[in-house]
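User: Show me sequence and structure for the first protein, then do the same for the second.

Assistant: Starting with the first protein.
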Amino acid sequence: MYNTVISSILTHHNHHGQRTHLAFSLYSQILCIQTIKPNSYTYPSLFKACGSRSDHVWVRHGRALHTHVLKFLDPVEYDQFLQASLVSFYSKCGKFGACRHLFDQISEPDLGLWNSILSAYNGVDCTDLCVEVLFLFNDMCKGAKVKPNEISFVAVINACADLGAFSEGIWAHSYIVKNNLKLNRFLVASLIDLYVNCGYLELARQVFDELPKKDIFCYNAMIRGFGTHGYAIKAIKLFDKLELEGLTSDDVTMVLIISACSHVGLVDEGCKFFNSMKERYGLEPKVEHYGCLVDLLGRAGRVNEAMEKIRIMPMEPNAVLWRSLLASSRIHGDLEIGKVALDHLIRLEPGTSANYVLLSDIYADMNKWEDVKRVRRLMKDHGIEKVQGMSVLDV
């Protein structure tokens, strides 16, 4: 009964804080009753709840739960659901070493466990982990007992997209088609990213067009593709189309469309999209949107306007914004704003040599060699060394 109630609370209430506390309160009651003890059905939903919360406190709760598993359960009691929940929990916490160690202890993982470990590395911006996904998938396919499904291929194709592994991605797409797997929105978004990253924009558009019912994730993937390759007008037309289909733009959509305008110098259009976020789409601009706006204005030489946007933004500007402004100042020779940007960067990143080097380059572009020497002396006084460049002969 306790297991049923705990699972019900966490399954049907989206792991809101109150519900999670209630579930753990019931678990604590189990520990206080001498006649019963937790079993393998007690823990999966609790691990899932801990992994779904970004708070470090809940990560600690999850790790404490793992010690309870070791204390209360005999290894023969570990079923696939419990093992999968542990693998998933550690993956969501970013503990990939623990995640892989637990997986390797399982003698005959089923499809759910294979998908858990593949998905663990999914979306992690690390080349080594993307390569690991492909090796794991290869191991999975060696046995005749487990056949990959759509979830497996989302992880594999995302890894191929991040690596730019076109041949492996084409093979995965072919397998999906030949084996009549369903091309759902997640697979389509992954395939679009694959073809965009590999430079095959027409193939990306073909995959997009063939999906009968598209969601905002598919539109975002295709808008990103057009923006990345400099087709801002096509990105804007696709943005208009998603609105005609009754879809609602999200924060990611607005970042992508403003960025697309920035890449080709459509300054007025980009500003219009930014200004419409709150009044038309009900979206509060975040630091990422201000970053795109500053980049848009800076590229167009409107450095003073970019500086003003940073000054009036409601949140604290991050290093990315100041570095973008500093780069724009260098391109357009605005030394005063460049120095303001550098002052903020030094406060945010006091040990980053690239910020000093960029200002030094601005002085050099303007033939102010005494100022170049002064910046180098400043670096020396702060104990900051310039990162050495590398020749192709060194590779």
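Switching to the second protein now.
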Amino acid sequence: MRASLIQIGVNPDESIEARRLRAASLVREQRGADLVVLPELWPVGAFAYESFATEAESLDGPTYEAMSKAAADAGVWLHAGSIVERDPDGPLYNTSLVFSPDGELARTYRKIHRFGFDQGEAVMMGAGEELVTVRLPEATLGLATCYDLRFPELFRGLVDAGATVLVIPAGWPARRREHWTLLARARAVENQSYVLACGTAGTHAGVEQAGHSIVVDPWGEVLAVAGPAEETLTVDLDPAKVTETREQFPALKDRRLGLPAPGNRR
């Protein structure tokens, strides 16, 4: 299974429409891959809070149209990163779009954990409420976004739902880059799954991005890592390695859930 992570650079001097066209072209260049992944909120920028409301779009808006056609042209499964979704009956959402090789919208995922500590995304966007997996011929994807990476219980839920490849688009700041790579490896090790963590390059509203997209195997080995600039990582994954790792070191079978809280012990 060949996966390509496109670490798009976000340049404030580039228009959103120009970046859509460029991203679509980069996706088309990945013909021959099975799965292509884009970063979080790459059209507008993950920290461009002042633009969220004006640049929000519906699920069938311009990013959908561009990415649907690109996926079909390349013949790939495409995790198109995320957009600022305008729900006509609710708040804004940070929503990921996944397309099948025929360009159909296969699944969406609304980011559950919103970053900002009562500011920015945390107050401007609604929280998703559903764990989402996508079944591909070779593997089952578990979807998460950026700040979700810090919440291991979400990934346990995805593994229980059958995920073997955890896909995490992000707009992660450079000042916390070490956390990005550490947590990506931790999620791979503890869940015995592949991790495909795709970040952005450049700056979002003056916030330097970490870049360093990373692919980690189920044993925690780093298969590929990008630098800080725009780059595409292409890695061949062996789906059988997930099953082999879980059988050779069956730690997931030893989980003990539902233990009583300390105050309830007798």
